[in-house]
Amino acid sequence: MIRPMTPPFLALEAVTYTYQDGSPGLVDCSLAIARHSRTAVLGLNGSGKTTLCLHLNGLLRPQAGTVWFDGAPMDYSRAGLKNLRARVGLVFQNPETQLLSASVEEDVSFGPMNLGLPRSVVRKRVDAALAAVGLTEAASKPVHNLSFGQKKRVCLAGVLAMQPEVIVLDEPFAGLDVPMQRELQGILERLGQQGLTMVICSHDPDFAYEWADQWHILAAGRLAASFAPEQIPTALPRLAELGLGLPKVAELYKELVASGRLTAAAAPPRGHSDLLARLRQTAGSKCQPAAGSEGRSRK
What residue ranges do the domains of the chain occupy? Predict the structure, then answer.
């Protein structure tokens, strides 16, 4: 007996959306996102990444095609959207478009309060969300006094307070300096370890290569390619054709294998530290004398 395949947790099926000025957002776009996965959506400006994010949260409705969630077509009724947005949280690229309240604590509590939860439950959720993004000490601060990076974390906390099953982030590292990027990467890593389904739209192939377990690449509103991370080193020419930056670790790994410095592995190194560890391991093994060679050299 052939068992049916498990349907994807989130999926777009031949979705098309065109803006009022005639510019295409998505064009016959189909892709799937598995439950508990880390999905990176990459593409140039205007490729449709933000439009995709807005469809996953129900803020845009396809003019053709279907968005699927948890095995069923997305429900765009008032009750359906309320349920969807409690389960699929969206963090916008610009935090100013998402922050609604005067203080951090008020803003993070906005979503849970709208769910009609008891104040004691809302309090616990807000405390836990602020702790998750490292903003416990900023709870009473006015939002307008925060840095850009802190505002982004408040937006993420507001989504976490809803206790969603999916978090969609549109260009989360845009406008952040390097320390803030690393801090946010650490937060995202911890959230991924908790089993959340995560979708990140990004211009950063290095982050996507190290973090994601699935790539979807958009071009002119269409799905141009999909790759698992282990396929990336052999897909570099295709990435170059699409105009994307190449993950430096994957590019260097491919050159090291070609030169004989490293042996090709089923699971290529995903990050800088992993690549360095493999290089050191290879160098160390080459320095070890072959079995019996010490005795022969002394004769």
Answer: 10-246, 247-286
127: left (phi over 0), alpha (psi -120 to 50) or beta: alpha
CATH for 10-246, options being 3.40.980.10, 3.40.50.10950, 3.40.50.300, 2.40.170.20: 3.40.50.300
Which pLDDT does position 72 carry in this prediction?
A: 93
Note whether 181 and 19 are within 8 A (CB): no
Residues of the chain whose pLDDT is less than 70? 1-6, 284-299
Are 201 and 56 in contact by the 8 Å Cβ rule? The answer is: no
Q: Are 221 and 44 in contact (CB under 8 A)?
A: no
CA dihedral 90, 95, 100, 104 (to 10 degrees): 100
- For the chain, helix, strand, coil in percent to 5 are 45, 20, 35
Residues, the chain: 299
Q: Which run of H or of E encompasses 41?
A: strand 38-42
Segment (H or E) for 39: strand 38-42
| Spatial separation of the C-alpha atoms in residues 278 and 281, rounded to whole Å | 5
Give pTM, 2 decimals: 0.87
Per DSSP, the residues of 130-187 read HHHTT-GGGTTSBGGGS-HHHHHHHHHHHHHTT--SEEEEESTTTT--HHHHHHHHHH
